[in-house]
Every structure is written in C-alpha cells, then in structure tokens.
Design goal:
Largest sheet: 5 strands, parallel
Structural class: alpha/beta
Number of helices: 25
CATH architecture of the largest domain: 3-Layer(aba) Sandwich
CATH class of the largest domain: Alpha Beta
Oligomer: single chain
CATH topology of the largest domain: Rossmann fold
Strand content: 5-15%
Distance between the termini: 74 Å
Helix content: 40-55%
Length: 562
C-alpha cells in the first residue's frame, strides 16, 4: 500500500524541518553544548510539526552515536523511533489518559532505567487535556526528574496548561507556515514524485491548509488521486472548501462600488460551488484587510509573502483600494466581522450575507470632514438676532442694589453683538469651548444676568471657589469678552456660611440664593427618579404580583436612565 505523503515525507533530521528553523536550531545547539532540557513543551496549531519535532529530539538524544544534533537515521534506535516502536520512547495520548491514576502509573515507571538507549523519553500529545489533579501529580517529577528521564509535551492550547507546569519546562512555539513555504515544499514533493502541475495550481491547497503542512499534504494526496497525470488549478480549487479567489475579489470590488446587482449575482455563483458561506466571509474579510493595508501603508510596509497574493492579485487590490473612499475599507471589514458572527451554517446564511451587503450598499457614508469644519466655523461666526433680556432670577437684596445702580440701556449693551439669552445658554456655549472649566460655572449661583452685569455667589467648599480669586475673575471676564462680546461687569462674592444650598425649600425666598445649574440638574434627576419609582410601585403588574405573593416593595433601584 502506498504511504500517505504526510508520513512518507516526514522530516527525519532537524535540517528537514520546514518552517521551524528557530526551534530546530535551539534544540541542536542545546544538544551540542550538553545543555539538553529534560522537560519540553511544543506548542502550535495542528499540523505544524509538534509531534514530529518531539520525535526528532528523541532521536537526537537516543541515537547510538549520540546524543547528537545530527542523528544517523541508520541505527536500530533511529529506525525504531521513526517507526514508533522504540521501547524507551513512550508516546502517550493525553486526551485518553487524563486521570491522576494514569499519571501516577507513569510516575511509578520512571524509576526504571532505559532498556536500550541513554534516555527514557515520555512523549505526551495533547497534554492540555490532563486533569488538574494529573498536572499536580507531575509537578514534583518535573521539578527533579531522574537523570535518565526526558518529558516531551505537545499541545495546541498552551493557555490551558497550568503556570506551575510551564515554569518547569522549556516552551517552543512552532510557527504557522506561510502559503509560500507550503507551496515550495509541495513543489519539491511533486518533483520527487514525478508529477507535473500547472503554475499556481498549488496555491488553493496552501490557502486551505491555513499554515498546516500536514493538512496541505493530505489535500495534495487527494488531488493526485483524482488527477489525470497533471495537477491543474481548477482541480485543486475543486477539492478545497474555498470559493475561487476571483469571485472573492469580485465581491470586494462590488462592495467598494456599492453595486448590489453584482453582489447578488456573485453570491449566487459562489453558492452554486457549494462553498460554505462562513469561509467566504472570512476570506472576504481577510482580502479587505489586505487591501486597506496595501492602500494605507503601501506595498513596502510589510512582507507580501504573508499576504498570499500573486502579482496579478496585488495589482487588482491596489486598484480597488484606490477606488475606495476614505475609511470605507475599514468599515467594510467591520461589517463583515459582524456578518460572520451571525452566520451559523444554516440555509439562512445566504439571506444574512445578502442583507449585510444591501445594508452596506444603502449606507450614505461618512460626511466630508472638511465640509463639517467649514459648517462649524460658519455656525460660530453667524450672528444671533437680538432677543429680549430674560428676567433676572431670584435676587438677594445686595444684588438688587447692584441692578438698580446699573444703567438700563448703557452704551456698553448697545455694542454687544452676540450674547446668550440666559445663564443656562451661556454655560452651554462655555462648555463647548472650555469643557474642563464648565464645572466652575455650573457650581456658581447666578443672581443677576444681563449684558451689563453678571452677579454670582459661590461656596468656599465648591468646585467654583477658584472664581473668588481676582486673577481668575479677570481671566473669566476676558474669556466672556472673547466669546460673547461681553463688556459689562462681573461680580463674584462668597456665599454666606449658614446658607444651605443642597436642600433649598423655596427658591423664591429672599434669604435663599437661586439654584446653581449643578443643583438644578441634580434636583431634576431626583424628581425623574422619584416619578419612575412611583410609576413602578403603582404599576398594575407590580400590584398583581404583590397581591398573589403577599409581598411588599422594599426598594426600587433606578439604573442607566440618564
């Protein structure tokens, strides 16, 4: 029986280990320097060579001419390890030996010396599947292993291994392979097998493998089996679960152009191929990402080999990127991510994808920032028509004297071009221009507000106390002049200590100052909360529940309404 390519071309030395040069070099150097680790974890996605690397390390340690970074591959130990039947190299499936009892049996056996080689090696695959108790049983052994014992662990989920285990092991992270690396290895294997192939025919297989050399070799086995003596691009695309790349590119072009008819037609073509729409959206999102990276950073800003694009595809994406409006590619990417989250493999997936596509096509887009700036400047410079002066709020006797002494229609008032009608309006505009200082004015209590005079009182304990400083008052008046054209007087006094500002019973009383804007906001919020509480307590559903269960309302909490 013909051997599968994944087994036939499994690396037999560190030099043959494709795509994991750093790990191979580190292990070879450790053996060469006599600093071989006795507990090693190999982590990475499926098919990148975790178990293969562990076996190579075991072969290097137990080769009859070793330990050596270059095992001979000819001795009995090397042959036995390659075949998986070496009595001193025990391969254990962590997924089916998860209990603490399994680990205790393993721990009890490590006291026996190797039968043939220098080291007794335990290779545990999918080690993250061990239970917490099993990990605990390993701790002491890993910390002080016998000189003849080496533990090799392989895992796809490093984050599930307890930190106490990780701290006792050397961890090697095996990298996903780029499509270019996978294609290069597949071409080499096809040359050795004497099988011709069309240029570019292996790229669909490499993309489908998603960094896994084992998956790529399995697909290549399938392609060879159904080929007629030569691999073609159409044949290789047909055995993958991916839509043809040109259709994905057409989808992106249609999204950028907001061409709904082209979108529907292309989605229909893709569905006819039987491709899973979840993978279509994933590929489309990835292609969108590539496009805005190329558009915004340029082709020189990254390794194009990582993008898995040929020269023709690169030129097409550059063209699409240039035709896209600012931020559109980024917004398309986010739309596709949301769409992918809604897909579940059901017959509705096509409707969901089309709905997201139509929503995008109807999106009016972002407003022009320059136009927004011009509009904002126009609003700020537009003069507000003169309005009748608002009646002063409740005034203290001292403030009434100040008003009486001020001219009713002074020359200063005539010169004012823009002035807010009320104190509330002034603070709102001030908050827009001086957001960090808005709290000062909100905590102040206004007594008189007119183009000729603004009279305030502030508590020494409030945020507005800095307004009592003459220099601060001078800066405030200058700011009012710049923003509102105010040329009148600003009088700011300290409030009387006995005055209660937090619980004002009657704001019209002569002895009580008017509310500050902060107090008014707090009072209105409390009133809204009280109204909501009463509505909740008096609601028919509440009364029905209380009647049925014989209960009573202890408290009503109001959350997230402001």
């Amino acid at each position: 029986m013909t051997q599968p390519l994944a087994r036939k071309y499994r690396p037999q030395t560190f030099n043959q280990l494709v795509g994991q040069d750093t790990t191979a070099q580190a292990l070879a150097n450790a053996i060469r320097m006599g600093r071989t680790p006795q507990a090693v974890i190999f982590s990475g996605v499926r098919g990148v060579g975790k178990t293969t690397t562990a076996r190579l390390y075991a072969k290097a340690l137990n080769c009859e001419s070793g330990p050596t970074p270059s095992p001979c591959g000819e001795c009995e130990s090397c042959h036995a390890i390659s075949a998986g039947n070496h009595e001193d190299v025990l391969e254990i499936d962590g997924a089916s030996n998860t209990s603490v009892d399994d680990v205790r049996l393993l721990r009890d056996s490590i006291g026996y010396v190797p039968q043939r080689s220098k080291y007794k090696i335990y290779l545990i695959d999918e080690v993250h599947m061990l239970s917490q108790s099993a990990f605990n049983a390993l701790l002491k052994t890993l910390e002080e292993p016998p000189a003849h014992v080496v533990f090799l662990f392989a895992t796809t989920e490093l984050q599930k291994i307890p930190q106490t285990i990780l701290s006792r092991c050397q961890v090697f992270l095996l990298q996903k392979m780029t499509s270019a690396t996978v294609v290069s290895r597949l071409e080499e294997i096809l040359r050795l097998e004497g099988i011709p192939h069309e240029p570019g025919s292996l790229r669909p297989i490499a993309r489908e493998a998603r960094g896994s050399m084992r998956d790529a070799l399995t697909l290549l086995d399938q392609a060879i089996a159904i080929s007629n003596g030569k691999l073609t691009a159409a044949l290789c695309e047909g055995i993958t679960a991916q839509a043809p790349r040109e259709l994905i590119t057409t989808l992106l072009r249609a999204l950028v152009a907001k061409d709904s008819k082209l979108l529907v037609a292309t989605i229909d073509q893709i569905e006819q191929t039987g491709t899973d729409l979840m993978s279509v959206v994933e590929d489309l999102a990835q292609l969108t990402r590539h496009t805005f990276v190329i558009r915004d950073l340029g082709c020189d800003a990254l390794d194009l080999a990582q993008l898995d694009l040929d020269a023709g595809e690169l030129q097409e994406l550059e063209k699409i990127g240039k035709s896209a409006a600012n931020f559109d590619l980024n917004r398309i990417f986010r739309t596709l991510v949301r769409c992918r989250q809604d897909l579940d493999g059901s017959p509705l997936d096509r409707c969901i994808l089309e709905n997201y596509a139509f929503e995008w096509c109807l999106d009016p887009g972002l407003p022009d920032l320059q136009q927004l700036r011009q509009t904002a400047q126009l609003v700020q410079t537009t003069q507000v028509p003169a309005q009748p002066m608002a009646a002063p709020v409740a005034q203290s006797p001292a403030a009434q004297v100040l008003v009486a002494s001020a001219p009713v229609a002074s020359e200063t008032a005539k010169k004012i071009k823009v002035f807010p009608a009320t104190w509330h309006d002034l603070v709102a505009i001030w908050r827009h221009h001086r957001p960090l200082q808005a709290g000062k004015l909100e905590d102040a209590h206004p007594h008189v507000y007119s183009p000729e005079l603004i009279s305030l009182t502030v508590l020494e304990s409030s945020f507005a106390r800095c307004l009592l400083n003459p220099d601060e008052q001078a800066r405030l008046k200058q700011s009012f002049s710049d923003l509102f054209g105010f040329q009148g007087r600003i009088v700011i006094e300290k409030a009387q200590p006995q005055t209660n500002f937090t619980a004002i019973a009657d704001t019209t009383a002569a002895a009580s100052p008017p509310e500050s804007l902060a107090q008014k906001s707090e009072r209105e919020t409390l009133q809204r909360h009280d109204a909501l509480r009463q509505a909740a307590v008096n609601h028919q559903t509440t009364r029905d529940v209380l009647e049925v269960f014989g209960g009573k309302v202890e408290n009503v909490r109001i959350k997230n309404i402001d």
